[in-house]
Structure formats: C-alpha cells, structure tokens
Amino acid sequence: MTLNERIMADLKEALRAGRTVELMALRSIRAGILEVEKKRVGTVLTEEDELAVLSAAAKKRREAIEQYRSAGREDLARKEEEELAVISRYLPQPLTDEELETLATGTIARLGAAGMGDFGKVMGALMKTVRGRAEGERVHALVRRLLGGS
Fold this sequence. Notes:
This protein is mainly α and 150 residues long. It has two domains: 3-88, Uncharacterised protein YqeY/AIM41, N-terminal domain (Hypothetical Protein Yqey, Chain: A, domain1), CATH 1.10.1510.10; 97-146, Arc Repressor Mutant, subunit A. The chain is built from seven helices and no strands. α5 crosses α7 (136-146) and α6 packs across α7. The protein is globular and about 55 Å long.
C-alpha cells in the first residue's frame, strides 16, 4: 500500500469514526498532495514527493505552534500539536544527530566537497537522502559547520 493509499484509507476511517482533528489533518495532507499532482499533470507522484508534502505540512504545524504559544493561545497550539501528531505518523523516523552527521560526512566525502563553495552541491544531495527525516535548517547548520563556514 502506497503512502497516498494509506492516507486515503485512514481518512475514510477517521470520517466514519468522527475523529475530527485527525480528519482535518488528513484532509490537509490530501489537499497538499492534490495540489502537487495538479502542478505535475501527467506524472505520478513518487513517495519522495508525498514525503515532501508531509514534511511541509509538519513544518507548518511546528511554526504555528510556536506562534500561538508566543501569542498566549495555548488552545490553538494544542490543536496544531494534535494535527502534527497525525502527520508524524506518516513521516519516517527522524534522524538522530549522530546519524545525520554520519550521512553528511559521507555525502561530503563522496562528492569531494572541500569548502563552502561546495555547499549547494552537498545540500542538494544530502536533502534528497534525509527528506522527511531531518529539518532543512538543521541540515543547513550541520553542513555549514562541516564545510568550515562556522
């Protein structure tokens, strides 16, 4: 069963069971996937494409949680946390700092990267490997540090 099929099956189950928060989160994910499909008419989305949609949805929820908390809106922050928990069920297990550093150093070595001039090349290759398992800002900071950009 593909990721998209799993999401659709869970969406139907949430609808039948009346789980509104789960239903809202799954509908949001589905809308994101449909939006990408519309942009790429005639092509089938890969699981990597679907993971990119999920990662973006999770990032959006994390940012909203921070904003709601800073505004003193704990009720809205909790709602976003509940939706984030639903989205996280479909994302791969996040990488530990050690795993991410191992992947980053391996990518740097494989590409022969020697400094910040190779930053974009390393980031592009590494993000394909870690998509959905590590935040871009975290990867950016690590690659910058490993390439000597402080």
